[in-house]
Write a structure and sequence with these properties.
Keywords: Methyltransferase, S-adenosyl-L-methionine, Transferase. InterPro entries: MeTrfase_TrmA_AS, MeTrfase_TrmA_CS, NA-bd_OB-fold, SAM-dependent_MTases_sf, TRAM_dom, U5_MeTrfase_fam. By secondary structure, the chain is an alpha/beta fold. It folds into 3 domains: 54 residues, Nucleic acid-binding proteins (OB fold (Dihydrolipoamide Acetyltransferase, E2P), Beta Barrel); 197 residues, Rossmann fold; 133 residues, Beta Barrel (OB fold (Dihydrolipoamide Acetyltransferase, E2P)). The chain has 11 helices and 22 strands. The chain starts with 14 loop residues before the first strand and ends with a strand. 44% of the residues are buried. The structure holds S-adenosylmethionine. The site of S-adenosylmethionine has 20 residues, from α7, β17 and α9.
Length: 453
């Protein structure tokens, strides 16, 4: 079927000639055909192409690129052989410089939509020192091919659970990829009895020591399986662990986590402090950008030694410990018990005696803490992608701290939450974007807010 750009409604399956005008927030080219907005992955602004419509909604359509007739000066050859099929990277075809200005402009657009003077408020993005091989953690699905009696590993495709096999992902270190490839060969050799029970392999690497920790996620556990998996070795691997998650598709981690050998933790040095990290605890995906982000949070918090600071969504307390050094008192709140245990152990080892860690959900703990008269001069938020729960925002407005600092990994929820904080009387002083995840559509941003008069 072939359509035309002649003012008729866009047809599903139809082909059209378009020019991309800009990139959307997912990194897809945006064009219009007969008044309808169309998203086309892998077409850059200024590029012309023939597209085929694959999905037609009421207000927009999606299409695939059939043929491209010119190349943007911002285009580069993607180094990864499965780029375009694998769902991990969205913009490997865009030069790193262009990725950075696209991400900065995205935060500027967000600021303008909030009624702010974006040029005055938004700083230039802080780039990643490495545009490839920057990740410290990877989790790969595992499939056992019973016919061929071999294990296949890779990543999921775009919005699907179809496995795209790869043995050379460019986002992680070569040593991590080497460990994954060894794990695949090890499981193939172990045979069906072991390999058919493993659904994911997770590798974490310390960017300080180079040590690696491997976790096998399995559908069920038993003595024979534990014995078989304990035999896995690779040059940088110091610990092997096991997590039991009966569902092979969906959440990877189970409730149970067992160390098969080694200390079961990694050590990472951040902001001049050494932290032990257990497998289940959150750690920012790369240390150099995390460190730059922590320094920005600290500067935006503008603490004095008399201040009480609250670090909401604190993980293993990396940021809490840094804030505590510059404040009178610090409290970290985190829902994952294992992370809170890590935080307390690290606190004892670092000798930080003015911090306290609470295990709980921010949206339930914070309102009752404020009700009971809890006080903070400065509140720091570093939530997951879903942003801050409205109950937590309402509580912070009631607590009325002098400053709020918001480290976000999702511009959409950042915008939603800033709207509430601004309506509650806070003024945005500065916004600092960071590129923690080169080659992807992700962008982090740290926002400084001060209480209005
Ligand atoms: C983006 S991480 C930030 C962690 C920490 N600030 C850091 O830099 O390592 C978000 C953290 O919030 C935790 N979390 C997610 N939802 C939560 C909730 N509702 N209440 C408390 N903690 C939560 C996650 O387990 C994770 O450790």
């Amino acid at each position: 079927m072939s359509g035309s750009n002649d003012g008729h409604p866009l047809e599903q399956g139809g082909t059209y000639d378009v020019t991309a005008l800009r990139l959307n927030d997912d990194g897809d080219g945006v064009a219009t055909v007969n008044g309808m907005t169309v998203f086309i992955p892998f077409l850059l602004p200024g590029e012309r192409g023939r597209i085929r419509v694959t999905e037609r909604q009421r207000r927009f359509a999606r299409a695939v690129l059939v043929e491209r007739s010119n190349a943007s000066p911002d285009r580069q050859d993607a180094p990864c052989p499965v780029f375009g099929e694998c769902g991990g990277c969205q913009v490997q075809h865009l030069t790193y410089e262009a990725q950075l200005s696209w991400k900065t402009n995205r935060i500027k657009r967000l600021a303008s939509q909030l009624g702010l003077d974006s040029d005055a408020v938004v700083r230039d993005i802080i780039a990643s020192p490495k545009d490839f091989r920057y990740r410290n953690q990877v989790q790969m699905p595992v499939r056992y091919d019973a016919k061929k009696q071999e294990v296949r590993m890779g990543f999921y495709g775009f919005a699907s659970h179809q496995m795209i096999e790869t043995d050379s992902c460019h986002l992680q270190s070569e040593a991590m990829q080497d460990t994954l490839n060894r794990a695949r060969d090890f499981l193939s050799q172990a045979g069906a009895e072991t390999a058919s029970l493993v659904h994911h392999v997770i590798v974490r690497e310390s960017q300080t020591t180079g040590d690696q920790l491997v976790v096998f996620a399995v559908t069920q556990s038993g003595g024979r399986l534990r014995h078989a998996l304990s035999a896995f070795q690779a040059p940088r691997v110091t610990s092997v662990c096991l997590t039991v998650q009966p569902k092979a598709v969906g959440p990877v981690w189970g409730r149970k986590l067992e160390t098969l050998y080694g200390p079961g933790t990694l050590t990472e040095s951040i902001a001049g402090m050494s932290f032990a990290i257990s497998p289940r605890s959150f750690l920012q995906i790369q240390t150099p950008v995390a460190q730059a982000m922590y320094e920005t949070v600290l500067a935006y918090a503008d603490l004095t030694q008399d201040d009480a600071v609250l670090d909401a969504y604190c993980g293993i307390g990396t940021l809490t410990m840094l804030l505590a050094k510059h404040a009178g008192q610090a409290i970290g709140v985190e829902e994952v018990e294992a992370s809170v245990e890590d935080a307390r152990l690290n606190q004892a080892q670092l000798g930080v005696d003015n911090a306290e860690f609470v295990a709980g959900r921010v949206e339930t703990w914070l309102p009752s803490w404020v009700q009971e008269g809890g006080h903070a001069d400065v509140v720091v938020f570093d939530p997951p992608r879903k942003g801050i729960d409205p109950a937590a925002i309402a509580a912070v407005l009631e607590a009325n701290p002098r400053r709020v600092v918001y480290a976000s990994c999702n511009p959409a929820t950042l915008q939603r939450d800033l709207k509430l904080l601004i309506a509650g009387g806070y003024r945005v002083e500065a916004m600092q974007p960071f590129d923690m995840f080169p080659q992807t559509a992700h962008v982090e941003c740290c926002t400084s807010l001060v209480r209005g008069e």
